[in-house]
């Protein structure tokens, strides 16, 4: 009798872990606040949402599957240029632009994953870094296509859903970016709570044991890397569509490094870590750059060291521990 | 007694060297269905290496490995698991942040081929969760199954090693010192759990404690410096002069 109730309890226990929590609902409701509280900062809010999506895509591979990447901007940039080139050559419809950008980034991501899946740790950092630099340089030299250091000019977006024009205040930009972020988040949330998501955590925790339980860890890695690349591509395309420009910087090393910093700040492997990290990082930069732009990296460096030293699981990890202690 | 049934696992002339160190030197091994086979030998004899070769985690320099009638020498490790070969590790190789229940559920999902599924919630896989719970219950660790593995007592982690191997529904189970690091008083208890496993599973276990070996093994292989010194029933091994020489004196069975 007790075994049966315990087995039922096991099901319930697993179901409980993936339930929507009140804090999540509050978080998403709070993302609507900028419309009311900071109507003059909606452009910034849209950029935060886009960066949050980029960080979320990194979380999927880094936080869940344990794949370190220092070149994730490659896929962001691929998405950005795809959307930009489409529009420049006459196709400015945003939604299909997102889909095509995801496709391009996803295909390149899959090709990269054939190599990525064979390596771990330091080798992986070097390979992803190398791929990122390579693509950046390629885009730089192919200035006939990309506009080189001047960036891609002549991006003209059509109205979203044929109704909403991208306005100067960022009203459409933020609504659009937030909606795409939320839908992507739902997708990622489903993935990490699926059997596949469990397998990803297994790879992160012990890839040797994954092999020993009969898993093809490499196939899982290829799949998640492709999905992550496609999502990063969507983020890049969003940036192009909401700003009507593409700069070489979308592919740059700095972008790869910053998104990693945001994810580590917020807490990797927690779904919301990248989102919280992006909000804190980008609003802080916005504040500081007004006052003392020179000190920005000093403060972000200090914050990063402090977080790694005192909150090894990021800000969200620290909060979770606090709550756990109070009980 | 065991001669009639075809072996579920066999190796022929298996060789492996690390540089100039020969760790497997023409190893021929046959494990019949349902066997309780002990592999013993001094430290560094090459026992763990043999498990790594058989499971495909190391590539042999020569020789063949058969699962049933099938030559799996070239098969990837995960393919061998799919064909009924499972192992445990001498040093715990678990998923520290996963709960015991999650870990075993994952192993079952991999076996069923549903670990690829990314569009359905894990909570819907009730058959897998139930089976995982049943395996953990059969090894008496269901009560701690919601705790992260890293927080489990060492003895429970050793049992989880076995639970993970069982989750793949093996025909052959290779246990590399399942009682390593477990206090003596508890190791007999742990082996009771192993002895209670279904007879459909052939078990090859590496073990240093001779009282346990003689109590649970139906056959014993003695390995020294990468070679099989002798193989026989517990009785034959206990009275073998060469074995006595290796183990320096008359360590006797109880
Ligand atoms: N990857 C490796 N590279 C080089 N040498 C190795 C490697 N793995 C094992 N060895 C060596 O091979 C020999 C056999 O090791 P193995 O682990 O198979 O012994 P064992 O019989 O399992 O010993 P124990 O009872 O201590 O577990 C040892 O001398 C060991 O140092
Ligand atoms: Mg060993």
Features:
heterodimer; A: 327 residues; mainly alpha; 16 helices; B: 254 residues; Rossmann fold; 6-stranded mixed sheet; 10 strands; disordered C terminus; binds adenosine-5'-triphosphate; binds magnesium ion
Notes on the protein architecture:
- The complex is a heterodimer of chains A (327) and B (254).
- Chain A has a domain of 214 residues.
- Chain A is globular.
- The mean pLDDT of chain A is 91.
- Chain A is an all-alpha fold and 327 residues long.
- Chain A is built from 16 helices and no strands.
- Chain B has 254 residues and is an alpha/beta fold.
- Chain B has a single domain, classed as Rossmann fold (3-Layer(aba) Sandwich).
- Helices cover 33% and strands 24% of the residues of chain B.
- Chain B has nine helices and ten strands.
- A six-stranded mixed sheet of chain B has the order 6-7-8-3-9-10, with helices on both faces.
- In chain B, helix 3 crosses helix 4 and helix 3 packs parallel to helix 5.
- Chain B is globular, with a radius of gyration of 18 Å.
- At the A-B interface, helix 1, helix 10, helix 11 and helix 12 of A face helix 2, helix 3 and helix 4 of B.
- The site of adenosine-5'-triphosphate has 12 residues of chain B, from strand 2 and helix 1.
């Amino acid at each position: 009798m007790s075994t049966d109730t315990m087995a039922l309890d096991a099901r319930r226990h697993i179901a409980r872990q993936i339930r929507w929590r009140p804090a999540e609902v509050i978080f998403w409701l709070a993302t609507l606040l900028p419309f009311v509280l900071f109507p003059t900062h909606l452009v910034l809010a849209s950029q935060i949402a886009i960066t949050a999506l980029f960080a979320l895509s990194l979380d999927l591979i880094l936080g869940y599957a344990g794949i370190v990447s220092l070149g994730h901007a490659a896929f962001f940039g691929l998405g950005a240029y795809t959307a930009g080139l489409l529009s420049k050559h006459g196709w400015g419809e945003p939604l299909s632009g997102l889909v095509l950008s995801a496709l391009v980034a996803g295909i390149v991501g899959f090709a990269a994953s054939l190599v990525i899946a064979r390596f771990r740790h330091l080798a992986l950092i070097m390979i992803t870094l190398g791929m990122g630099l390579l693509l950046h340089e390629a885009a730089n030299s192919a200035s006939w296509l990309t506009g080189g250091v001047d960036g891609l000019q002549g991006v003209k977006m059509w109205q979203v859903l044929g109704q909403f024009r991208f306005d100067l205040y960022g009203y459409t930009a933020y609504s659009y970016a937030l909606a795409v972020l939320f839908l992507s988040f739902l997708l990622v949330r489903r993935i990490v709570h699926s059997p596949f998501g469990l397998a990803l955590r297994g790879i992160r925790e012990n890839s040797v044991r994954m092999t020993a339980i009969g898993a093809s860890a490499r196939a899982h890695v290829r799949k998640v890397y492709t999905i992550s690349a496609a999502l990063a591509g969507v983020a890049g395309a969003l940036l192009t569509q909401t700003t009507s420009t593409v700069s070489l910087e979308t592919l740059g090393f700095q972008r790869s490094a910053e998104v990693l910093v945001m994810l580590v700040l917020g807490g990797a492997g927690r779904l919301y870590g990248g989102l919280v990290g992006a909000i804190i990082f980008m609003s802080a930069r916005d504040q500081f750059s007004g006052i003392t732009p020179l000190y920005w990296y000093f403060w972000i460096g200090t914050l990063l060291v402090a977080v790694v030293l005192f909150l090894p699981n990021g800000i969200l990890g620290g909060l979770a521990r606090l709550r756990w202690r109070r009980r | 007694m065991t001669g009639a049934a075809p072996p579920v696992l066999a190796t022929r002339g298996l060789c492996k060297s690390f540089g100039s160190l020969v760790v497997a030197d023409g190893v021929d091994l046959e494990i019949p269905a349902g066997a309780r086979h002990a592999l013993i030998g001094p430290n560094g004899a090459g026992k763990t290496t043999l498990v790594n070769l058989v499971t495909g985690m190391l590539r042999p320099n020569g020789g063949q490995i058969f699962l049933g009638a099938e030559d799996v020498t070239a098969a990837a490790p995960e393919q061998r698991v799919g064909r009924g070969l499972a192992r445990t590790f001498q040093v715990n190789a678990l998923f520290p942040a996963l709960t015991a229940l999650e870990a075993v559920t994952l192993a079952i999902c991999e076996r069923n081929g549903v670990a690829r599924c990314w569009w359905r919630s894990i909570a819907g896989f009730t058959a897998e969760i139930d089976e995982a719970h049943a395996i953990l219950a059969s090894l008496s660790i269901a009560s701690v199954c919601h705790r992260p593995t890293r927080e489990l007592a060492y003895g429970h982690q050793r049992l989880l090693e076995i639970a993970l191997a069982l989750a793949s529904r093996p025909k052959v189970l290779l246990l590399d010192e399942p009682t390593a690091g477990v206090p003596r008083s508890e190791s007999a208890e742990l082996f009771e759990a192993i002895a209670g496993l279904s007879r459909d599973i052939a078990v090859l276990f590496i073990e240093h404690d001779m009282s346990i070996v003689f109590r649970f093994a139906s056959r014993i292989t003695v390995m020294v410096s990468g070679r099989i010194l002798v193989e026989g029933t517990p009785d034959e091994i206990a009275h073998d002069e060469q074995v006595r020489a290796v183990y320096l004196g008359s360590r006797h069975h109880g």
